[in-house]
Amino acid sequence: MTVYAPRRQGHECAARGCDVQVARGMLMCRRHWWMLRPSMRDAVWATYLDGKGILSDGYRQAVDDAVEYLAAKEGIASLSGHTTGEPA
Ligand SMILES: [Zn+2]
């Protein structure tokens, strides 16, 4: 894993296997964010904005769902594997 300190405060995309740096306040990179179903984006925002932000169970659940959805869509089976290849 690369340990570059980003110039601005940021973090890695929440999607599994994606190490794109995204800005604070963004959950994932644009590519992954727009792969989500609209209802998932809504759920993430709704729970994020409900006051407790990332500490709320609802938010974490919404993020979990989104990450699982993307992993399934990209054919990334589990946390144990390190997938570097692009799905065909
Ligand atoms: Zn990503």
Summarize this structure briefly.
By secondary structure, the chain is mainly alpha-helical. Helix content is 38%, strand content 7%.
**Biggest sheet features:** 2 strands, antiparallel
Radius of gyration: 13 Å
Taken as a percent bin, the fraction of beta residues is 5-15%
Question: Segments where pLDDT lies below 50 for 5+ residues?
Answer: none
Shape: globular
Describe the structure.
By secondary structure, this protein is mainly α. The protein has one domain (10-74). The protein is 38% helix and 7% strand. It is built from three helices and two strands. It has a two-stranded antiparallel ribbon. A hairpin with an 8-residue loop joins strand 1 (10-12) and strand 2. The two termini are 24 Å apart. 16% of the residues are buried. It binds zinc ion (ZN). Zinc ion binds next to helix 1.
